[in-house]
Amino acid sequence: MNKKSYHMAERLRTASMLTFIGGFMDAYSFKTQGGHFSGMQTGNMIYLMMELAAGRYWSALSYLLPIVCFIIGAMFTYFIRKKIIYKRGPWYLTSATLMFVGIFIIGLSSMTSYNQLTVALLAFFAAIQAETFKHVRGTPYANIMMTGNLKSFSVFLAQGISERDPIYLRKARNTFLVVLAFAFGAYLSAKLSNYMGNNTIFLLMIPFGVLMWILYREEKK
């Protein structure tokens, strides 16, 4: 039986690269930008409420900013993809190109501005990434937050074992690998930021460049 062919945007290598990027960005923003998250808005929301409860209202606003920018980024992605680009072909390559340019702009801004702008831009582009890339080999996953992926891995593994179904075991394997990629991205970002500081973000242009290349090759077929 022939194996099902997936678009490059849904293949395991692409999903692993994207979760690596997600982990790298969150660790970078938390460590170098005042304890704020770029993609994990749950963390920002918890800190927001904690600051409000402590009466530190100006500090609370700094956690509200990435949440709002994430919402704007998700809405931007929907309208651009649906109203402008949808009829011209897949959105994946355009999205990857936007994020590549965005990371370069963020790198420049992080050297010359307050961290609020850097975190806001990171949250905006994290939303584009999350809203664009949603499946790995036909299975829904998240590339900027791992709670849902850990739950999916556990359920797929349990189903695979109890039903002796290799399909669920493969889904469990794929989900586990994207979680590992996220963890490795976070680890590498935390390590390198000790030496490179804010400039660490420029390293993300490498995986984004590779992502653009493989998506471009896919679209040429």
From TrEMBL:
Residue ranges crossing the lipid bilayer per the database entry: 12-30, 57-79, 91-111, 196-216
Classification via InterPro entries: DUF1275, MFS_trans_sf
UniProtKB keywords: Membrane, Transmembrane, Transmembrane helix
Domain of life: Bacteria
SUPFAM superfamilies named among the record's database cross-references: MFS general substrate transporter
PANTHER family: SLR0142 PROTEIN, UPF0700 TRANSMEMBRANE PROTEIN YOAK
Protein name, per record: DUF1275 domain-containing protein
Native organism: Floricoccus penangensis
